[in-house]
Amino acid sequence: MAVTVVICAYTEDRWDDLCGAVRSVAGQRVESAVGPKIVLVVDHNAALAERAERAFPWVDVLHNRGRRGLSGARNTALAVVDGGIVAFLDDDAAADPGWLATLLGHYADPEVVAVGGSARPVWPVRRPGMLPAADAEGRGELDWVVGCTYAGQPERVSPVRNLMGCNMSFRREVFDAVGGFAEDLGRVGRVPLGCEETELCIRIRQADPKARIVFDPAAVVRHRVSADRVSWRYLARRCWAEGLSKAAVAGLVGGTDALATERDYTRRVLPAALRRELVGVLRGKGGAARGRGSALGGAAALPMAVGWAAAGYLRGRFGGAAGRSGGAAAFGGGRERQ
C-alpha cells in the first residue's frame, strides 16, 4: 500500500522540531517494498524551502501554491499525491515508532476512509497549573487547547466524527470525491484558527454515511508545546478562535454536525472535571504533582474556556463577515502572520 506523509511548515523558528518530525517519519517501517514518501510543503517562505531542500535531499519539498495557511499547504500536497494513503504530521510533532504501521493497519477494512491517533504533549518544563489535572494517560480536559489529545476522547479504537490535524491519515481517493481542505478555514502562521480537518471529516461522512473515520490512541505522536502556549492569554485566545472556527464550520456543514461532539463534551466531560478541580481546591490537592494553587487554576480555566469559546462562536455566527478576522485581531492575531 503506497503511503505519503505530508508535513507542512512555515517558519524557521521551528527548524529543530521540523528536523525531528522528518527523522521520525524516515524511521517508520511499513509493509511495502519502499518506505513512506515524505512531502514537505513550505508556506510562502523561500528561505525555509531552500534550507529544507539542502537538509533533506530525499524529501519532496514543495512551495504552497494555494492560499497562505495550513489548508492551502495541505491541498498543495494533495495535488501531487495520486493514490494510496496520505498521512499528515505537524512540523512540531514527532511520530513514535510504529505510528504509521498502526494507522495503516485499519485500512484493511474497505469502509475505513480515515484513521488518526493521539498526540501527547511535550511541555516546556512541566504541565502548567492553569490546565486541569491529567488522567492516568496524561490527558487533561483542556489539552486540545495546546493541540493534544484530551480527556474525554476515546481510550480505545473507536469511530469518531473527526481527527486531530497533527496526526491523521486518509485514503487519497476521498479527496477526489469531496474535495480538499477548505482554505477559508485553518491556521495561518500563529493565528490559532482551525477546524479545517473537522469540516473535511464531516463532509466525508455527509457524502457517504457508511464511511468510517477511526481513532486509534495507540498511533502516537509527541507534540511539542511551546512556552507561549502555556499562558492565560493564549488559553483565552485559543478558545475564542475555536468558537470562531466552529461557527465557520457550522456555516459550511450545518450546526448539528458541527457541534455534535462539542455538546457531549460540554455536558458530560467538563462538569465532572470542574467538580474534581473544586474538590482539589478544598482538599488542597490537584492530582499528581499539583497543589492547591494548580487545582484552583484548573477550576478557573474550565469555565473560562467555555465562556470564550461560546463568545467566539456567537461572534462568528452573528458578527457578520468581520467575525473571524476581527476575532483573531482582538488577541493580536491580525499581526501574527508569516
UniProtKB/TrEMBL annotation:
Keyword Transferase: yes
InterPro entries: Glyco_trans_2-like (IPR001173), Glycosyltransf_2 (IPR050834), Nucleotide-diphossugar_trans (IPR029044)
Molecular function in Gene Ontology: transferase activity
Glycosyltransferase 2-like domain residues: 4-178
Origin: domain of life: Bacteria
Keyword Metal-binding attributed: no
SUPFAM superfamilies: Nucleotide-diphospho-sugar transferases
UniProt keywords, alphabetically: Transferase
A UniProt-annotated Pfam family: Glycos_transf_2
Protein name: Glycosyltransferase family 2 protein
Species the sequence originates in: Solihabitans fulvus
